[in-house]
Amino acid sequence: MDTGFSYATTWEGWRSSDSVLSMHTYEFIQKWFVEHPRFLNNPLYISGISYMGLLIPVITLEVYKGNERGSEPQLNIKGYLIVNPFTDRFIDENSKLEFANRVALISDDIYEVPKTRVSVIVII
User: Fold this and answer.
1) Which end of the chain has fewer CB atoms surrounding its CB within 10 Å, N or C?
2) Is the distance from CB of 80 to CB of 47 less than 8 angstroms?
3) Stated pTM of the model
4) Where on the phi/psi map is residue 34: left (φ > 0), alpha (ψ -120 to 50), or beta?
């Protein structure tokens, strides 16, 4: 699913995007249920972490659209779960200092200094 180490021998195989990954994931889910039909009646929740926070809603929407189109197999989709999602680079990066203060990783004194004296803060 385009994660980890991969390679391609053609331009078509190399070309990828979040949209392509979402469609490949939906196709994988469909094929998995064709091979394992005993699970079709179970509730389906699609989940992911981190960067998948951008893709899980798209993949879930594809499942719903597939069901509406009458694609087989019909999937018993109930929802999705995203853990520690990456959603927006600016907001995600700029919320790290506030988070560190809220969970007492840094003191209030340290938290207040950059807000008045520094224009850019990056915590990795």
Assistant:
1) C
2) yes
3) 0.65
4) alpha
